[in-house]
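Recall that a protein's primary structure is simply its ordered list of amino acids. Everything else, from secondary elements to tertiary packing, is in principle encoded there. The following example makes that idea concrete.
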Amino acid sequence: MEKTIKGHLEDIFEDLGQEGQKKFKSKLLDRKAEPRVRRAAVEKLEDHLDLASLMVTTFTETGAVPVTVEILKAAGRHEQANELIQNTGQSASLVPSPGPSAPSNEHFIDWNRAELIKRVHNVNGVLDELLQMRVITDEVYDNIRAEKTSQNQMRELLMGPIKSAGIKGKDALYKALKVTERCLIEELEGQ
């Protein structure tokens, strides 16, 4: 039998232990976006099972994973956040990770566009990954590489093929950046 979203959440919360759950609950209460969780509801929680139930009840099965990932990252639990994404098959596009004031449906690539243009210097490596994933064609690859600076290359990539490919393109670019610019992406996720 395939594990439910609630089951995946239970596993993650159990792995956090009591201290991790305490920090998670604190960050959950600090969350400003709607729907918000009432302090009384959190204080009634007895264990990781209750916490998973609260998340699914409050945010629905669809919304519980992105909100949980957002809070895990805010609590500095990136490993558990990535594990939850992987285990549930949720796409990175549902996981904002851009900071407390960002809309919860904005993609990581959109939120960090200016930083990516400014700071990604291994554009050729990114292009190689995207070509291998068949997100871009040989012609697009050559046209972007013809740009003189890495900033112009990133701008051309973001405004051309990635914009055209939509969410799937942004997800692919996110994966490519995780491979080629791991430290930068981890820093941006931590903000």
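The two ends are 37 Å apart (CA to CA). The first helix runs from residue 5 to 30.
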